[in-house]
Design brief:
Blueprint lengths: L1 H11 L2 E2 L1 H8 L4 H15 L3 E2 L1 H5 L2 H9 L3 H13 L23 E6 L10 H19 L18 E14 L5 E6 L4 E6 L6 H5 L6 E8 L4 E7 L15 E5 L11 H12 L8 E7 L21 H13 L6 E5 L17 H8 L4 E3 L4 E7 L2 E7 L5 H7 L1 H5 L7 H10 L31 E4 L6 E5 L2 E5 L8 H6 L7 E6 L5 E5 L7
Parallel strand pairs: 1-2, 6-8, 9-10, 10-11, 11-12, 14-15, 15-17
Antiparallel strand pairs: 3-13, 4-5, 4-7, 5-6, 7-8, 9-18, 13-14, 16-17, 18-19
Helix pairs in contact: 3-5, 10-11
Length: 516
């Protein structure tokens, strides 16, 4: 490709800055490289194309970049940031594919579609729920189901059948029986289950907007439910040949007066040390609430050491620079980061997080994101989700509420895998709000991960669900006044590490043992 690019440059009589030439060489398609070079020539306005000329005409540079396929945009963006050219890239596709070929362990990043559709109207949510229904319907139809019919085909004749429906309404009667209204693309029907019956527990756990398979008997006036089948998840175990470790952290909350900086420094010092584990660490996952944010809740400014987001991200970047360069870092946002609260959340923005974009081994991703670690033809899938919906699962499911699952949050995360959805119920609490998508619900778990990692609850917990390892992250913040008020006890400074070859999981504690 080098020779072809050189020939193209000579043909056009253009002089290129070295970094821009190196970028063109990485293009797989010569015609795409030609088109991009011509756009840069127009943006520069002369035959000498360098960072100085391009910075004067960034609006044309943005046009050039946004004409590229999604898989090339991240590569171009990274190069331009190094050249001091800040551009706002339009993410036109849901999936952005990044490959780090120079690393021993390759990976691909699948971002959520986080485009802002502008003013949201009811029709957008109709399209969103239709898309979700279709995605999960396809999963359920892979089951061996007898007598499956659409709701619109149910007539006045009483008989047994199965339907795939979305929960649109659920209520408990005075006798503690439950009535659930299901709907599909053809109609609606009400289902009844008697208190204490064999299926009662399953029906009681249904959440609004769940999509499930319902086995029932009855007619178009009322159906009697005798079983509920969730889409559920199953995963065969994957082992790599290479002895590599991955590390999980969340809720660092840099900038807060409660931030445990001394303990985080201890973690970084361990990373910089030389032992059998640290020299084989390949990936670190930061799962949201990386800084404490500004204006997240009333009166927060009184609880901050660093009063601006730029200061907070600058301090976070100083931490990350100490992480050895051979380790790839993935970082998604949470509610405290400089992004919208509505999910899916886009990657941390450049305006406030500019310092992060200067760290070469840091890959900023959306919340949620699916990261595929690659070894030959093997894929090890890590699904990152900060976990705002955990509170809702605990509040709405009686079993979790009784066991006080905020102390064992992995039990709530199991519900996500069971439903194949990270946050099924929209708007039932302030923490569950998402941007509708008419094409595909980004919060559906279409590919079952090897690891589902979350943050949010500030407590480390580990569980296994049908082959998927669940890790809920610890934190680097001591108990806040709000946590004390609601009775939430954080479990800070715990770091789970996982071996991709042996599947060994270790928990490291970097807490201040002396309490000083």
């Amino acid at each position: 490709m080098n020779e072809k690019i050189i020939e193209l440059i000579r043909e056009k009589g253009i002089l290129l800055q070295r970094e821009i030439y190196d970028l063109l060489v990485k293009f797989d398609d010569l015609s795409m490289a030609r088109d991009f070079l011509e756009l840069l020539e127009r943006a520069s306005g002369q035959k000498m194309i360098n960072s100085s000329n391009l910075r004067k005409h960034t609006e044309y540079v943005i046009t050039a970049v946004n004409n590229l396929p999604s898989e090339m945009k991240q590569l171009v963006e990274t190069t331009f940031i190094k050249l001091g050219i800040t551009i706002e890239i339009q993410q036109t596709k849901e999936v952005v594919d990044i490959s780090k070929g120079e690393r021993k362990g390759d990976f691909r990043v699948f971002y959520s579609d986080t485009k802002n559709i502008g003013k949201v109207v009811i029709g957008d949510f109709v399209g969103h729920f239709r898309a979700r229904y279709g995605q999960i319907q396809r999963m359920l139809m892979q089951r061996d189901v007898q007598g499956l019919v659409s709701i619109g085909k149910i007539n006045k004749e009483r008989r047994k059948f199965s339907i795939i429906g979305m929960v649109s309404e659920k209520r408990v009667t005075g006798n503690k029986n439950i009535i659930v209204k299901f709907e599909d693309l053809t109609g609606k029907v009400s289902g009844f289950v008697r208190y204490g019956s064999e299926c009662f527990q399953k029906v009681s756990e249904l959440q609004l907007d769940d999509v499930v398979l319902v086995k029932a008997s009855g007619n178009n006036e009322l159906i009697y439910i005798y079983d509920i089948i969730y889409p559920d998840s199953y995963k065969d175990k994957v082992n790599f040949e290479s002895d590599e470790w991955i590390v999980f952290l969340s809720d660092v909350h840099v900038g807060s007066k409660k931030h445990l900086g001394k303990e985080f420094e201890s973690f970084l010092s361990w990373l910089e040390s030389d032992n059998d584990v640290t020299r084989n660490i390949k990936y670190i996952f930061f799962i949201g609430d990386n800084v404490d944010g500004v204006g997240v809740f009333p009166g927060q400014e009184k609880l901050l050491v660093l009063k601006s987001l730029k200061e907070q991200y600058g301090a976070l970047a100083n931490y990350l620079r100490r992480i050895p360069k051979e380790i790839t870092i993935f970082m998604c946002p949470g509610q405290h980061d400089s992004v919208r609260v509505a999910e899916p959340q886009p990657m941390i923005d450049r305006h406030y997080g500019q310092a992060l974009y200067e760290i070469q081994n840091l890959v900023l991703v959306s919340n949620p994101s699916l990261i595929k670690l690659l070894e030959g033809d093997k894929e090890f899938k890590v699904l990152m989700y900060h976990g705002a919906s955990i509170h809702n699962f605990i509040n709405e499911i009686e079993e979790l509420r009784i066991m006080k699952a905020h102390k064992c949050p992995a039990k709530a995360v199991r519900q996500m895998l069971k439903r194949r959805h990270l946050a099924p119920s929209h708007g039932v609490s302030p923490s569950i709000v998402y941007i509708p998508n008419n094409e595909k619900d980004p919060l559906v778990i279409e590919e079952v991960p090897d690891i589902l990692c979350t943050g949010e609850v500030h407590r480390l917990d580990v569980d296994n669900y049908n082959g998927t390892l669940i890790i809920t992250g610890s934190c680097w913040q001591s108990q806040t006044d709000y946590e004390e008020k609601v009775g939430n006890e954080p479990d800070p400074c715990k770091v789970p590490i996982f071996n991709l070859k042996t599947r060994e999981l270790r928990i490291l504690d970097f807490g201040d043992k002396d309490g000083d």
